[in-house]
Design goal:
Strand content: 15-25%
Distance between the termini: 34 Å
Keywords: Aminoacyl-tRNA synthetase, ATP-binding, Cytoplasm, Ligase, Metal-binding, Nucleotide-binding, Protein biosynthesis, Zinc
Protein name: Threonine--tRNA ligase
Strand order of the largest sheet: 3-7-8-15-12-11-9-10
GO molecular function: threonine-tRNA ligase activity
CATH class of the largest domain: Alpha Beta
Radius of gyration: 24 Å
Structural class: alpha+beta
Catalytic activity: tRNA(Thr) + L-threonine + ATP = L-threonyl-tRNA(Thr) + AMP + diphosphate + H(+)
Family: Belongs to the class-II aminoacyl-tRNA synthetase family.
CATH superfamily of the largest domain: Bira Bifunctional Protein, Domain 2
Bound molecules: zinc ion
Number of helices: 13
Length: 411
Amino acid sequence: MHDHRKLGRELELFDTDPLIGAGLPYWLPDGAELRHTLEEYIRGAERRAGYRHVYSPVLGKRELYERSGHWAHYSDDMFPPMDLGEGQQLVLRPSLCPHHALIYRSRAHSYRELPLRMAELGGMYRAELSGVLGGLTRVRSIQLNDAHIFCTVEQVAAEARGALDMILRAYGALGVRAARFRLSLPGPGGKYVAAPELWRRSTALLTEVLEASGLPYEAAEGEAAFYGPKIDVQVEDAAGREFTLSTVQVDFHQPERFDLHYIGEDGAKHRPVMVHRSIIGSVERAVAHLIEQHGGAFPAWLAPKQLAVLPVSDAELPHAEALAARCAELGLRAEVSDRGRGSLGARIRAARLVPYQVVIGAAEAADGLVALRLRDGRRLAPMPAGDALSRITALTAAHSTALWDEEAGGR
Ligand SMILES: [Zn+2]
C-alpha cells in the first residue's frame, strides 16, 4: 500500500500550511470533489435507512460538556476553553453527541416516533499533541460521519444490526476490507462511567448483535467509550497498523445525564437508549485509508476525475469539448486533455489513474463514436458516445467497484 501523505500531495487532494497550523489540512479541488462524493454517498445511504439530518454548531458552553461527562472523562483530548468574560466559557466540541441529545430533548417525543435516527456530518476537535500530527490520519479538526438513534431497549439490537449492515454495504462500495470486528469493553483504570448494571446490559446487547451477524469478532478490554461498550470495525493502514474506521455503540449514560424521555404507550415517561454509530468514522481518516488502499485508483463513482477525454489532434478538440459537456450534464466528471499537454501516449500515461480514457480520433469524430480505454488496460471497440456514457452512468449510480459491466452487452 501507499503512504497517503505522499500520494495525497502528488494527486493534489490535500495539503497543509504551517501558517494555518499542523493537523489542520485543507482540501484542494480534486480532494474536495472526492470528499463531497463520499459525503453524498453517506447521506444518501442514511436517507434510505430512515435517518434525518441536522446541523449543529461546533462550539458549546463548558457546562454542556460537564453535563455530558466529557469534561470529567475526556478533557485531556479537548482544547482549552475560550474565556468570554462574565463567567462564560465556550469549548470546541470533542463530539457531536451532546448537541444531538439537546436537539432530541427540545421536542416532546412519543414511542411512535422511535427509533428516531438523527445524523450529521459535522466538525469536532481534538487537541492532539503536535508531535503526532500528520497527513489526514492525525488531525486537530475532524469532520465526523456521526448519527444517534434514540430508541427503546427492545429496539437496540435491530438498530445496531442495521448500522452494521450499512457499514458492510459501504465497505463493498468503497472497496474497503475489514481486518477485524472488535467488541470493545472497559478495562482497568478509572476513565469509565461507573454504572455496572448499564455496562452489563449494553455489553449483552452488542454481543447478541455480533453473534447473530455471524461475523468473527474478538473482545478487547480497555477500548470502550467512557459511556459504554462498542462494536469497532478495524482496518489496516499501509504500515499494517490497525485502526478503527467504523463503530456502533450503546449508551444508557447520556440519556440519563440529559434527562431524555419519550411518552410510552402507557402514557408515562420512559428513558430512551442512545445508539451512537459511524459508518466511515472521520472523513479525514476514511479518505486517507481510501488513498492508501487504492493507490489513487479510486472506484469510478468516487474518482475526482472519472473520464479523461483525449482528442488525437486539434481537429477533434470541439468533439472532445462537446463530449465533456455532455458528461457534465449527466453528472459525470470529465476533463479534456488536449495536445497542449503532450503526445497522445504521454496524455494516456498522465491519466493512468482515471477510470475511463476516451480517445477521439478523426474516424470516431466523423461517426460520433468513442474508443474507451479502461484503467485496468482493457480497450473497447468504438461505440456510440451515448451508449458508453449511459453504461458508465449506470455503474457509477450503482456505486459499483467494477469498471465495466460485460453482462450489459459488451461489444
Ligand atoms: Zn455519539
